[in-house]
Amino acid sequence: MIYPWQQSQWQQVKQLITSGRLPHALFLHGNQGLGKAEFAVSLANALLCQHPTEDRQACGSCQSCHLLAADTHPDLHYLRPQAAENSTSKKPALSIRIDNVRELCDKLNQTSQYSGYRIAIIEQADQLTLAAANSLLKTLEEPGKEVLMILTSARSHRLPVTIRSRCQLLRFTVPEESQALSWLKASQQGNDASDEQIRQALSYASGSPLSALENLHSVEQQQMLAEAMTAAICGKSSLEYAAKLAKFTKLQTLEGMLSWTSDLSRMIACGPETEIINSQHRSKLKALSKKVNQQRLFRFHDQLNFNIQHASIALNEQLLWENLLLSWDNL
Ligand SMILES: [Zn+2]
What we know:
Layout: H1 7-18, E1 25-29, H2 36-48, H3 63-69, E2 76-79, E3 82-83, E4 94-95, H4 98-109, E5 118-122, H5 130-141, E6 147-153, H6 161-164, E7 168-171, H7 177-186, H8 195-204, H9 209-229, H10 242-245, H11 250-270, H12 282-291, H13 294-309, H14 317-329
Parallel strand pairs: 1-6, 1-7, 2-5, 5-6
Antiparallel strand pairs: 3-4
Helix pairs in contact: 4-5, 7-8, 7-9, 8-9, 9-11, 11-12, 11-13
The structure holds zinc ion.
Residues 49-51, 58-59, 62, 64-65 line the site of zinc ion (ZN).
């Protein structure tokens, strides 16, 4: 997708393509939340499409476009920071390692499956380890014909100069406030954040529209979770929130629930005025703490932890929330 604030960058790239001066490596840099990765994907799609539009964008209907939509195009490769395979930490350090770069460069050295470009998108390229960066350098110095590497980063100063100097730079900037606000309003899709909330979210996100949208989404998620967790004491059924919770990121909602459970345990152990995470809901948590059974609360805590550990397993989310909310109501 080319966002409204990326038009000038798209024009630049389009000119490079039409004049046959597209370099072997592009470095898309600028603040987080400006859609650089999405731009990289759009560019890759446009180059791999067999019948691009007049504006040089992908047609969306040719065989290549179908493969791209299914994420199975053999000439498009992604590299993103990952945790080390042997890491057991809950929040491990992420990096792009030399093995991943070698594997990528091998793929780029093979001939194209569709006799066109072979493209690699390297997201958050500042996370390349030094060894990985050095390994990438070789391919950047002697890329094959019709090879394009698109690197993105919000922290361009962390990318080794040797890498940066071999890429053509494409800078992304924060859009005009009016453009960002009207895009955010149009992207709300049924959410009812006020103009003031939207303006505030944009300002917290330092003007980056995609980060602002994420912030608005997470505020809505927290409000919805609080309503679900306090439905029983407000005389409502929490089950009606199952479908609503299913539209948010599972792991974040589970972690949110865990924070409510921890708050309850802490209040029971240390008294109602103890320090808690969801302090804005203290009075409702107090009411809850008077009715819960500690054994059941511990079991619920375990149930949540189990689901957090297995959050990557796909399952019927509405059923999951119904199950958890039912346990919560019966604590
Ligand atoms: Zn196409």
